[in-house]
Every structure is written in structure tokens, then in C-alpha cells.
Write a structure and sequence with these properties.
about 300 residues, alpha/beta, Purple Acid Phosphatase, chain A, domain 2, 6-stranded mixed β-sheet, 8 helices, 12 strands, about 25% helix, globular, hydrolase, Calcineurin-like_PHP, Metallophosphoesterase
Length: about 300
């Protein structure tokens, strides 16, 4: 792998809350009437399961991956919502479950017990792994806003306490580190692009000839990958959350605009990546033409 400092040195600054301002502006316009007539709110809480079958170089036997991202537990999402997602995930019988960040969306001094109780129900032989996202950092107290309150000088202690709490519930959070899940499979996870110090090279160190999976909350990391990766899974964008007919998403929280809004995209070195629409909501509990999704990938050996 190339120099592990590449990504931390090119870390992007977080843009302003453009999506939130757009959504609030939409509420004051005629376009919001249809959304607030029930359709937009209802769409926020109707998830689907998106299934794909692909090859992954280096695999020796098939692998079934369930990818859940942007749960945003706290403000608009409660344990009942998460329970539905866990039930649907278990029904898919995945080999491994990956969480793409923004598990949390509220400030709390204690562990998010209802969320953890649901995550603990995940049934998978290879385990449950995840990464942190930008809203997780807000929940730690890394930054302040109207929703989270003031910054916390002990935010790093809070991050560590939450890592331990998630681990006790069976969820391993990867921050620039990796795991050999099988003899033929290496999983890596990077820190959040906006508020952490992502290092993809460190997350993939030791992969050797294994197939490689990398989880990054933010897809804006994709152009800066230091070397090819078998597959990268991302969230963060929510697919724009509000999409309009013919126009697509007016706002995507990415410096690349629509390029990494959702679906299959390509990163540096020709690396394939999937950007999920996520499951929760941010800013306001509204989605339009952008169904929340659990992504299930059946990965097969390359012939």
C-alpha cells in the first residue's frame, strides 16, 4: 500500500448544512404541500431491501453481506424503527453485517441502550462491524449545533465509551483498522472523512492476497484511495433524501455533487463502490422518491 498519510492529508472540510436549509426552504414552498400531505413523511419510514450479485476478486467461496447505514437513531428514529430493520436483515441470512456510520443522531451521557439491544439481535456467523460517521461525532460532542448542544472537551472519552458499549452488543467499530474475517477475506473500516482522520492504507494493511472490502461512511474518500480495493461500501448522502422527478436530488452532501449520490459508482484505480441511500433521515423526517434501503450483496469468486 502507498503512504498511509495520503487520506488524512487530503481530508475535506464539512460543507455547511445545505441539505437542512434546502429541506426547510422546501417546507415553506408549494412543493412541500405534497410531501407534508403524508407522502414525504411516510416514505421516510418505508424501507426496502436492495439485492445485488457481483464477483469479488480473491474470494474462494461466496459471501453474503448486509449493509445498513445512516440509522440516525435518536431524533426521528426510535427502537421500533430499528427493530424492523433488524428483522428484515436477519431474514436475509447474511454472513456478515456492516454498518456504514451515523448510527447515532443525539447527545447522551449514557449508552444508547434501546439501539444496542436491537443491534445485539443481529444473527450472522462472521459478526457485525461498522464505522463512525459525521453525526456520530456530533453525538460524541466533537462539535456543537442547536441539536447536539455545546462541544464537549471529553468527546474522545465519549467516543471510546461508545465503542466499548457497541462492542458489548456485538458490534466492532473499525477506525482505520481491519480484520481477516476469513482466510480469503479482509475487511477494513476508516474514520469519518469530515471529523476524523481516515486512513485507508492502515485499514487495508495486511490484506495480502485476500479479497478486500472497505467501509467508509463518506463516499468523497473514493477519489483518494491509495490503491485498488475489491469493493467499497459507503453511506452519508441518503441519496439526496429528497429527489424530484427528472431533476434528481437538488442537494447532495458531497463536494462532487451528483457523482456519488447513490448506487454503483467508481473510485480511484477503478475501484467499484456502492453508495447506499441509508435507512434514517437527517435534517427533517422527509424523503421523496428515495426509499430507505438495506443493501444485500451476494459476492462470488471471480472466475
Amino acid at each position: 500500500m502507498s503512504d498511509s498519510s495520503n487520506l488524512s492529508n487530503t481530508r475535506r472540510a464539512a460543507p455547511s448544512s445545505t441539505r437542512r436549509r434546502f429541506l426547510r426552504g422546501l417546507l415553506g414552498s408549494g412543493a412541500a404541500l405534497g410531501l407534508l400531505g403524508g407522502a414525504g413523511v411516510a416514505q421516510s419510514y418505508r424501507h426496502g431491501v436492495t439485492r445485488y450479485t457481483r464477483t469479488l476478486p480473491g474470494l474462494k467461496s461466496p459471501l453474503r453481506v448486509a449493509f445498513l447505514t445512516d440509522l440516525h437513531y435518536g431524533l426521528f428514529i426510535d427502537a421500533g424503527n430499528v427493530q424492523q430493520w433488524i428483522d428484515a436483515t436477519n431474514a436475509e441470512r447474511p454472513d456478515v453485517v456492516l454498518l456504514g456510520g451515523d448510527q447515532l443522531d443525539y447527545r447522551t451521557d449514557g449508552p444508547p441502550t434501546p439501539l444496542l439491544a436491537q443491534l445485539e439481535r443481529l444473527q450472522t456467523p462472521l459478526g457485525v462491524y461498522g464505522v463512525w460517521g459525521n453525526h456520530d461525532y456530533g453525538s460524541f460532542g466533537y462539535y456543537s449545533n442547536r441539536h447536539y448542544g455545546p462541544e464537549r472537551p471529553d468527546w474522545q472519552d465519549r467516543r471510546e465509551a461508545l465503542r466499548v458499549a457497541f462492542a458489548a452488543a456485538g458490534v466492532t467499530l473499525l477506525r482505520n483498522e481491519g480484520r481477516a474475517l476469513r482466510a480469503d477475506l479482509h475487511l477494513g473500516g476508516v474514520d469519518d472523512l469530515w471529523h476524523g482522520q481516515p486512513d485507508a492504507a492502515a485499514a487495508l494493511a495486511g490484506a495480502q492476497a485476500r479479497a478486500t472490502l472497505l467501509v467508509s461512511h463518506n463516499p468523497d474518500l473514493l477519489p483518494d484511495l491509495p490503491a485498488p480495493v475489491g469493493l467499497v461500501l459507503c453511506g452519508h448522502t441518503h441519496g439526496g433524501q429528497v429527489r424530484l422527478p427528472l431533476l434528481g436530488a437538488p442537494v447532495v452532501p458531497s463536494q462532487y455533487g451528483q457523482k456519488y449520490a447513490m448506487g454503483w459508482v467508481t473510485g480511484a484505480h477503478g475501484t467499484p463502490a456502492y453508495v447506499s441511500r441509508g435507512l434514517g433521515v437527517s435534517g427533517l423526517p422527509i424523503r421523496n422518491l428515495c426509499t430507505p434501503e438495506i443493501t444485500v450483496l451476494t459476492l462470488n469468486p471471480a472466475s
